[in-house]
Write a structure and sequence with these properties.
With 155 residues, the protein is of the alpha+beta class. The protein contains five helices and three strands. The chain has helices at residues 12-23, 26-34, 95-109, 111-142, 147-154, and strands spanning 42-58, 65-80, 85-91.
Length: 155
């Protein structure tokens, strides 16, 4: 599964956990957070609020950029009682999911919580998403056509 983690990113670990959270459902994040010890309190600094962003594409995957269209995005920023600030942007108009993702982001920055949240929330979500991607890839592979074989059959 492509984690979108590059070595030139300033914080590749954060990029990995935010990508995992962005693909998860609010109910699944909440269920996994319940398995953690009593979570610290937090205050919402901004949002959750929905808005639109322009999605851009590239011709041929790497050519010139063009505007593809607008998509709904919900953002949220929280601060834990320990002072760690978490941000989240999620596709769609799901305020609860954005808030939960921001809380997890803040907890992952707190060394007292990083290991527990990684083991109980991020790792299970990442594993589930990898299994889903493998299942989808297997289904797609089953429909693959071998054009080379068809060409040699004609001659």
């Amino acid at each position: 599964m492509n984690d979108f983690v590059s070595t030139d990113h300033p914080c590749p670990a954060r990029r990995r956990w935010m990508a995992t959270l962005a693909r998860a459902t609010a109910d699944r994040i909440a269920a996994l957070l319940e398995e953690c010890a009593k979570l610290p309190g937090y205050a919402i600094i901004r949002g959750p609020e929905a808005g639109l962003v322009m999605a851009r594409g590239r011709t041929g995957g790497g050519g010139s950029a063009f505007n593809l269209g607008e998509i709904s995005v919900t953002r949220c920023t929280v601060r834990t009682d320990a002072g760690f600030v978490g941000h989240a942007y999620v596709a769609g108009r799901e305020e609860r999911r954005a808030e939960l993702a921001a809380v997890v982001d803040a907890l992952m920055q707190d060394q007292a919580w990083t290991a527990d949240v990684e083991a109980r929330v991020i790792a299970p979500l990442h594993r589930e998403q990898a299994e889903l991607a493998a299942t989808r890839a297997a289904k797609a592979a089953a429909t693959r056509v071998q054009f080379f074989a068809m060409q040699t059959m004609r001659t």
